[in-house]
Amino acid sequence: MAFFESLSRLVAAVLFVSPFSHILVQGAGNVEYPVGIANTAAYGTINFTEIFAAYGHDKSNVAFGTSAYNGLTTFMRALPVRCFGADAATKYDVAVLGAPFDTATSYRPGARFGPNGIRQGSRRMSLDSINVAAKIRISDELDVVDCGDVPMVTTDNKVALRQLELANAALLSGSSLRTWEGKSIAKDGKFHPRVLTLGGDHTITLPLLRGVASIYGPVSVIHFDSHLDTSRPRKLAGGPWLPDEVVPVGHGSYFYYAHKEGLLAPDNANIHVGIRAPIDSWEKYADDRAFGFVISHAEDVEEVGWQGIVKAIRDAVGDNPVYITLDIDVIDPGMAPATGTPEIGGFTTREIKKILQGLSGLKVVGADIVEVAPGYDSQDEITQIAAANIGRGILGLMAKTPLTE
Question: CDD domains from the entry (predicted)?
Fold first, then answer.
């Protein structure tokens, strides 16, 4: 009965809004919100905590509604935190970070809207829900916040990538909210937050790898993609203008630079998964191995199943610190059309989920999900929903395995 009385007061406050009379509405967590109503004497103070508790919700943040279609849109309803401003001192275990960048693509742009699209795709998800298949509740093990997007300029790629590098480094340099038994695998022996970055085109992985390598040393990369992305820098073609000018880093060459900078684990302890796009020379295979990768093709799943793909990944990375980077075009465009360079014959969403679940126990120090371009998605938002589910799976891996020796 108390619930209906409180709810009726809330409805009345919404229906009888007046610009001339105001009261303070008491929000959950002792937060007060200004609301105008016609008759303050009749309705008094509205207690959102009481209403949410009666409805079965005990969350203290009133910014999130009780339904998937209202409230603030953060990734999996993570707490929004101004990580580079007023809330810089806040501690957390995982930061979700948007990287709205797509000016280093080679075909269709639009991934600058990816961070927002992936968050939209996660509207029905919650950090408090139990992943039945993985048998994990993320919020039981990790405090996850959403730091919003890095303000990356659109007129200078070098500056934009530097902005992301500095933002990522700032997040990684702090101490995590929680600590775990055992010695941290970080070079300084401390427990640092982990970052899940929502891209953005795949070029963003280079500055992100610089950050994790500064904390953990060279890392093994699990690269889900239809393309190798280890191309050497090339000179401009198509005319006599600037014939010696080298094309800057882009979404197909960032691993070349990562190898040159010593960010990748040695001894071919890195792996591409889902490769199927054509290449323009046989030398690219030799380069790819020289840069530290082994390859698992998309077609391999027909022969060895998802279990065989998992075995190939585990054999490659061993017990090294792992960074996961996933280009959404690793999924078949029939299930994930919203991307810049789609290739037919990709994994199904179920196969990706099973492969990720099979990586339980790996020490995932960071991850990104890239190349989601919502402008090419269906009305059903299937690509954005797929990307959000992948993000949930990656957070589940982080929740299951602390970064200890």
Answer: Agmatinase_PAH
| 118 shares a domain with 12 | no
Quote the tokens at residue 145. Answer: 């916040």
Q: For residue 396, give every residue at least 6 positions away whose Cβ sits within 8 Å of its Cβ, in sequence order, or none.
A: 131, 134, 136, 138, 356, 357
- DSSP notation for 318-346: TTS-EEEEEEGGGB-TTT---SSS--SS-
CA atoms within 13 A on the CB side of 355: 30
Q: Same structural domain for residues 125 and 7?
A: no
Beta bridge mates, 404:
184
**Residue 181, pLDDT above cutoff 60:** yes
> Could you report the per-residue pLDDT of 235-262, keeping only the tens digit for each?
666 556 666 667 788 898 999 999 999 9
What the block records as the tokens of 83 is 């990580």
Under DSSP, is residue 145 helix (H, G, I), strand (E, B) or coil?
strand
Are 100 and 35 contained in the same domain?
no
Q: What is the 8-class DSSP label of residue 277?
A: S
Domain assignment of residue 357, given as a range: 75-400
Dist CA 158 CA 394 (whole Å): 29
Say what the pTM is. Answer: 0.84
First-to-last C-alpha distance (Å) of the chain: 54
Q: How many CB atoms lie within 10 A of CB 174?
A: 18
> Are residues 155 and 9 located together in one domain of the fold?
no
Q: Report the alpha-carbon distance of residue 168 to residue 162 in Å, rounded.
A: 10
Please provide the DSSP assignment of 60-88 as one string. Answer: S-TTS-SSTTSS---GGGPEE--TTTTTT
